[in-house]
Amino acid sequence: MDIKKATLVLEGGATRGVFTSGALDYLMERDVYLSHVIGVSAGACNAVDYVSKQPGRTRDCMIPTDKNGNYYYGFRDFVKEKSVMNMDLIFDKFPNEIIPFDFDTYFSSEIECELITTNCLTGKAEYMTERHDRERLMKVCRASCSMPLLTPIVNVDDTPYLDGGLADSVPIKRAQALGNKKIVVILTKNRGYRKKVVSPAMQRLYRRAYKSYPNLVRTIFRRSFEYNKTMNYLDQLEKRGEIFVLRPQVKPVSRLERNKETLHAFYEHGYHYMERKFDDMMKYLEQ
Asked: For residue 172, which of 226, 253, 130 has the smallest C-alpha distance?
């Protein structure tokens, strides 16, 4: 396997991550791997499955084929667990029993993989790695994917964390800091998408829910500004040919989409769009 010296940046977006899964599955089938990967939220799940060389795994986790794989809680369990998703199923039973994760391949890989979390105490992004401890790796993935208000805070090394996308949704500056001249970015939203500011009602909800974490609340309130600034910067880099960007060409699925056919169609779109843009990407990487 020839690992190309380049950085792969994977945006989150909950179930919109199936687009990324399709794109990465095509790359894995072509045996194309980049030397550095940075994953955010759902992008973190895609990142680790890419490094462990398991095409189809993220797809199968996100699009369950039977009731045993249904990771959404009903109302009663939501109230009890304070989570819309069964995070124990996703980050414990899936990797260890139902859809086994290849920890050995991941830990022995030459690819450097960073998973982004948001530190609830500081409100800042942290770029976390794990090369030995299975439980900690899955805990970091869980933290990166833990959406505010919808899933609980996750403690890693006695520090509270939430969704990495809160502090650094698309870590292009982090990718540039790694020093690789080539950067491939896979987004889960259409060109031109920009986030809206948090409404006053939601601001009150966030303040009440995270009153112990004022820095986190400030980060959440600034997220739309930082995201939109990053998208403007990405557009400039892409226009100058300094990065390669793959993004959906159809309307993305909703963040918590449950329909299997809808999810599978978005996965297929990611797969076939990467197939269509593959030669362009390789030309960019090799020029």
From this structure: 226
